[in-house]
Each structure stands twice: as C-alpha cells, then as structure tokens.
Amino acid sequence: MESNNLTEILIVDDDRKIVNLVGLYLKHEGFNVLVAYDGEEALNLAIQRQPALVILDLMLPKINGIEVCQILRTKTRTPIIMLTARTTEEDKIQGLDIGADDYVTKPFSPRN
C-alpha cells in the first residue's frame, strides 16, 4: 500500500515522550506520523517512505543523527529539522552544515 508521502512526517527520537508530544500536534494538524526510535530504523523508513519532512534528534542509538542526516542528504532532498538537546552554537552550525534545514533545541514549546 502506497501512502501519500506529502502528508507524512517522520519523527526520529529515542525519547518516546518527545515522539508522542510532537506526533500528537502533527496528527492534530492532519499529518500522518511515522516514528523511528533509532538511526537505523530512521534511515530505512526515510528511504522507503520518502516523507515530506524528517524531524531528527542527534543523539540516537545504533546510528547517530549526524550520520543519519549525512546519509539522507546523499539519497534524498527531504527537508530535515534537527530537534535536539545539544544547544551550543557549534552544534547548531554543524547540524546546518551537514544538511539540516533547521535546528530546534529542547526543551521547546509546541505552541510557538
């Protein structure tokens, strides 16, 4: 069964509370939510399903978010938003340099 990937958003985070919170807001806005809890699962889903957007944590099991972003950039043009607890200016610059389209730090307010 092929999905409408224009409405699918992949959330990648090993923190299930973050995944559930972000997913709840996205579903409320009419998006279909795909979920991955590690980098390996994220790559498989992103390549297979070609979602409209990937929301990606940096600190992930199996394959970290930096590597996931770098690999995805070689295979797809899907927009990537880093959502991470790493807050230094260097972290933000690195995330954007490897191909992220935006960088949001935790904690965040889903209402903004």
Question: Class by helix and strand content?
Answer: alpha/beta
Text of the CATH class: Alpha Beta
Number of domains: 1
Strand percentage lies at 15-25%
Give the SSE string: EHEHEHEHE
Tell the overall outline. Answer: globular
Radius of gyration: 13 Å
The second-level CATH architecture is 3-Layer(aba) Sandwich
- Main beta sheet: 5 strands, parallel
Calculate the mean pLDDT score and round it.
89
Strand order across the largest sheet: 2-1-3-4-5
| Unreliable stretches | none
Task: Describe the protein in words.
The chain has 112 residues and is an alpha/beta fold. The protein has a single domain (5-105), classed as Response regulator (Rossmann fold), CATH 3.40.50.2300. Helices cover 39% and strands 21% of the residues. It contains 4 helices and 5 strands. It has helices at 16-28, 39-49, 65-75, 89-97, and strands spanning 8-12, 32-36, 53-56, 80-84, 102-105. A 5-stranded parallel β-sheet has the order 2-1-3-4-5, with helices on both faces. It starts with 7 loop residues before the first strand and ends in a 7-residue tail after the last strand.
How do the helices and strands line up, and which of them pair or pack?
Elements: E1 8-12, H1 16-28, E2 32-36, H2 39-49, E3 53-56, H3 65-75, E4 80-84, H4 89-97, E5 102-105
Parallel strand pairs: 1-2, 1-3, 3-4, 4-5
Helix pairs in contact: 2-3
Q: Which features would summarize this protein structure in a list?
A:
Rossmann fold; 112 residues; 4 helices; 21% strand; alpha/beta; five-stranded parallel sheet; 5 strands
